[in-house]
Amino acid sequence: MSAPRDSDSRKLLRRLQAVMAEAGAGQERLDRIVDLVANSMETEVCSIYLHRDEQTLELCATKGLNPESVHVTRMRVGEGLVGRVARRRGPLNTADAPGTKGFRYMPETGEEVFSSFLGVPVQRLGERLGVLVVQSKEAREFTEDEVYALEVVAMVLAEMAELGAFVGEGEALKPRHAQQVLFKGVMGQEGATEGTVYLHDPRVVITNPVSEDPEKECERLRTAVDELRLSVDRMLSQAHGDREQEEVIEAFRMFAYSRSWLRRMEDDINAGLTAEAAVEKEQTATRAKMRNADPYLRERLADLDDLSNRLLRMLTGQGGDRGALPDNAVLVARNIGPGELLDYGRKLRGVVLEEGSVGSHAAIVARAWAIPLVLQARGITTEALSGDAILVDGDQGIAHLRPDDMVRTAFGEKLAMAQQAQQRYASIRDTRCVTEDGARVELMMNAGLMADLPSLPTSGAEGVGLFRTELQFLTRNKVPRRGELASLYARVIEAAQGLPVTFRTLDIGSDKVLPYMKSQDEPNPALGWRAIRVGLDKPGVMRMQLQALIRAHEGRPMNVMFPFIAQMEEFLEARGHLTRELHREASLGHALPETLKVGAMLETPSMAFAPRRFFEEADFISIGGNDLKQFFFAADRENERVRRRYDTLNVSFLTLIERIVGRCAETETPVSFCGEDAGRPVEALCFAAMGLRCLSMRPASIGPVKNILLKADLGAVRRVIEAARDAGEQSVRPAVMEYLRRR
After folding, report:
1. DSSP string of 142-154?
2. Which residue, 128, 340, 419, 435, has fewest beta-carbon neighbours within 10 Å?
3. H helices, E strands: number in the chain
4. Cβ(649)–Cβ(732) below 8 Å
5. Residue range 80-109: mean pLDDT, rounded
């Protein structure tokens, strides 16, 4: 629907702007607005409901309903017709409100005499702010022009709410971005920190959403769109020859040149909005559609969302300079790639993402830096402002934004206790890890970045049990060269200062997709074409990486392991590639490793039942706990609904670990456990009790794990585990925790 140039909506917006300029406090403004809208739309009722919290709406102003119901009437999102508008994030238009599904009678309002109902959401970029409603006694559906006019008014109200125009008494009228908010997300990396919000994508603030000159605003929009299209064309020309990148940018370009996209924004300008307000109105509508779209369409709509952000920055000049990174910065973003995160360096205190997954590249980097990470903190990018105080609790997966003094005090006590514990761990850093009953347990660290290696001597680790080589591939736009990799691996070996380093060959696929690698359309990527399967099918990269590793060691001892081995033949074939590269390097006159140990990561239950020859051929076995657990329980570790259902200390899982340890003992093959659970003290204690004598974990976990093992009697813990197993318990955790409490 194209709005006529002198539309009723533009006249209404002019009056609304005048009211905003003349009216005083927040409540007075709201009262004037409902009076103005009711008169302009010739309805007996106009009401504004605002969110007092995420799930509750409060009637904050009305003309036509009982005035005594203001700040008294409240409803949940989804409750009644008003609640339905909030939940569906779209208009609801009916000639028979009492007969419409979901209608709920609020006796204190006196609204039972009104038949017609039109409600539209007041929202901004996916953030629900409230609902704007008009009602009349006459039984009629409102016209498309009337619905459109009310949506435009709601857009302006959203911008005014953002700027604090309705601040007043009561929860629903508290200043925007001034209230404390608790975000419950998902634990990405343990730890706790206090800091200041630093937004990866700063908010664009629209100070004047109402236009006086539609022609001028349309011209501003067209100029900005032309500039945007040129920038996309430049991106496409720069990607020339890169087919995959070209396909992505072509989809991006399709939206940039969309006539309907531009026409809708011009219609909004003709209705009375400024160019930037029109862009944001369209973007808000896109965000609402994205919520319920299928994954493919959501990805395409995200392209349009990105274009809108670029256009807003062009029109407002905002978002170019984010300012200096504060000393106590906590990065807040919708999502972020590993390269972008690495650009910030190790200065960050913590990271909070609105999206993301526990296996994402950002999570890998955060774990390497040992900084708290909270994922899936829904809504934080629209609520937080740069400079806001924030408390990040990675142990529980929560973030406190703008916390009050009570929360700060409690959190400060938690940080103080953690600091005391770190001091205690520092005192045992150089102590060999030997349990009370004389068992020697090696504690190794996991790494993936050069930046990890400085923490090797200070962590108390006895070496690097796993160096993830994929991060050097994930953070680049093309395959790294052999010489670059050889130089990097050599620096890693030198930084270890004689301590052993075990390099894992490239582990890509599943949740780790290279930006320059054609993505595979697989229904279940975790069980698909990944890790060693990619290396054996496309051996060029694997051979290049093996050559780089041989050259980097320059005659020094070399440990290498292959990931995701699911059957013996895969290991033998991969080792065959390594043998051939050793012969090739020797023929070229390059020094061969002084000693060579070739191992396999045991990440699938199938390998616990592999032929004896597998354990004889492998120089060592590393249990990849993260993948092994998800495959053993058939529980995707990216899926919060199921991954926390299954306990590592489940009797059946510990029995599997016991079997693997036993198989390795038969052939005297060294075995270690590598993964998140190795760094959890109680889990590490139980693994050691089941016979594991080498654990590899993030550097920050070594102190807590060593602390519990030094005081442990593994024989006693083993007896506790066996008693729980004999008693038919599903998990040994309660029994072990009770034993530790008694100790």
Report:
1. PPHHHHHHHHHHH
2. 419
3. 27, 22
4. yes
5. 93
